[in-house]
Sequence to fold (799 residues):
Amino acid sequence: MTVEPGDGYRDIPEGGLVKEAGNSREYKTGGWRTERPVLDEDRCTDCFLCAVYCPDYSVEHRDEEVVGFDLEYCKGCGICANECPVDAISMEQE
Amino acid sequence: MSTEVEEKRVAKTGNEIVGEAMRQINPDTVCAYPITPQTDIVQNFSQYVADGEVDTEFVTVESEHSAMSACVGAAASGARAMTATAANGLALMWEVLYIASSTRLPIVMPVVNRALSAPINIHCDHSDAMGARDSGWIQLYGENAQEVYDNTIQAVRIAEHEDVRLPVMVNLDGFIISHAVENVNMMSDEAVQNFIGEYEPEFSLLNSEDPVTVGPLALQDFYFEFKKQQADAAENVADVVQEVGREYGERTGRSYGLFEEYRLDDAEVAVVALGSTTGTARHSVDKLRSEGVKAGLLKLRLFRPFPAREIAEALSGLEAVGVLDRADTFSTTGGPLFADIKSALYDVDPSVKPVNYIYGLGGRDIDEEEIASVYRELLEAADADRVESPVNYIGVRE
Amino acid sequence: MNLKDYARKEPRLSPGHRLCAGCAASTVARLIMSASENPAVVGCATGCLEVSTTIYPYTSWKDSFIHNAFENVAATISGVEAAYRSFRRQGKLDEDFDFIAFGGDGGTYDIGFQSLSGAIERGHDMVYVCYDNGAYMNTGIQRSSATPKGASTTTSPAGNEIPGKEQKRKEITDIVAAHGIEYAAQTAPWRPQDIIKKAEKAFAVQGPAFLNVLAPCPRGWRSENDKSIEISRVAADTCFWPLFEVEEGEWKLNYQPREKKPVTDWLEMQGRFDHLFQDENEHLLEDIQEQVDERWQMIKNRCGVEE
Fold:
């Protein structure tokens, strides 16, 4: 990222513009959570509903399978666990 | 080889000629809302649109707040965006003015100066533009229709200059300039296009290769830096205004600078004013000179940013200077122009005695005689040890 | 597109935004953006979504994005769209773009109402999405005209004399439909396919289209973080938040619960309605049920649903 905390006014783009689209990736919100989702791969039917609902787009997948959660961003809200139709996700204390 | 262009001499009102300038500039978008006395600028422009004389996308928004908001959206998309307003319309778009200048968008907006309510009044004073003097917009004033036409065209170059990139308010006195017919020399359409050139925006929302986020939340850790950037850009404006004014002079024979001095060189007393009143003051100066009074006039063109050093140098050596303000600040320390002039003089030549005359509010007329009486009071003030009455009101019934 | 394809597609927003854990607004934003097939310019009114996705020097948006002020996203996007039309006409641009304006209920129903109405009336080609969480959440849960009757908010708190918000909700979707807009619809995140389909229809309209999406807010609603999607389903099953669309003036109901649930099912999931369950407020529960029933009947009538 080109803008660093502590940069002077001459070093940053003018007018408040953010020129790196989507760079919020660099801000890790994983530290917010007190619980983390845990996937039971045997129960999971890869319906992807957790991925659809996750407000932090943190359900990881490979090919056509749900494989886990992106703990760098997951805030532990538990929506995935609540919505999973086959109870394949449980929330555990951090 | 002369780079002078051919011009046509026409008889137009201030609004009509501003509308013509806009037509010649041919902005990509005009998003505007009517308010007296700006209305015929936009009405004439919409006729140009209807007749296919411009490429402009014309948006008849539902309020002035939306007019400036749409201009911000358009300018952020890389468009040459213009609008026009007056008085309470300007007041309504107040928060967006700050957003426009902070986002460094070179929007050009004629403002037909009219008194702010209440009571409601449609006539000329400068309270509208003065209320926006901290908004970061560049402010130009003109004495007559010719100057306003010339200012509108130059405004595009000033705003878009890479060292500036700030929006410009082109002020014209409501009714006095906007609705009076004068002789004006107009450049050809082609000459205007050659003068303003192609607009190369610094960024654009419509650049899919380089998407940009405009208007983020900048907290205590960054906001101040953006304001300093704006302050630095403001420092560059005076030079750019003069550079553009010089080039304009090469094309048209009419050069422009930060202000105009009239018989100021050897003057003992002088008046500083903005807008059409300077034309009247010129006559007062000539009359007083014929009576042996060493009277002079400084007609200010660039009000924001305020070229303090240059003005104070021009005024230094005077015994007293009368500052005519067509707006009040209700600070009890005088009008907005007075505050800037007095502060500028303090740094350069505190021996010049500044005296404020607030006049013309709500379109109250001021004539040659009243202005001459200002000079006579200045002569008295010059003789006294100190200025007894720094803030005065002229033309109001006691 | 089926949900699996949707979920596997790269979102047009990045994670790392600062929306609360369990906020449905970001789920909604991703669903809406997925329906656009072109590069987009997104506008957002001041509010939770805007503030949380664009804290300098970060932005979650992969498309161009503009925030102007609170009440003017529709006017701002009108300006962007006008510039686009101008450039297309002048041959300065030959790419297709989609224009999306997001506003919370504050920026849509209240302070932004004027500019929304103006933009629709003028016919700009844009999709306006209201993420309705029923209060001015970003500034601390103050009531809006979208707040349901009886809700306790920070400017309509439940107190000894007054039991929460006294006025019933304004129905913005109906008002927008009354503009004669080609497409207006109400949807909610428990039915993601509904959002996607409606968003696709909205983008296909040559002109303005409007979507009002229920966006449960655990913070403001005092509901459980993990129930935000479920609560929107309960809102549909209790008929508090019907899913319908108005396409060229034709009203169509998109969901009827197999069994209509009492509105208390929805109310009891949210702490902001706790006070309604006190004995002295029983009449309010009846009022609320009556209002929900009336509106549900009105919607069914308009949609030509036979009993």
Remarks:
- The interface with chain C takes residues 28-29, 31, 55-57, 59-63, 65-67, 69-79, 81, 95-96, 99, 204-208, 211-219, 222 of chain B (CB under 8 Å).
- The longest helix of chain B spans residues 223-252.
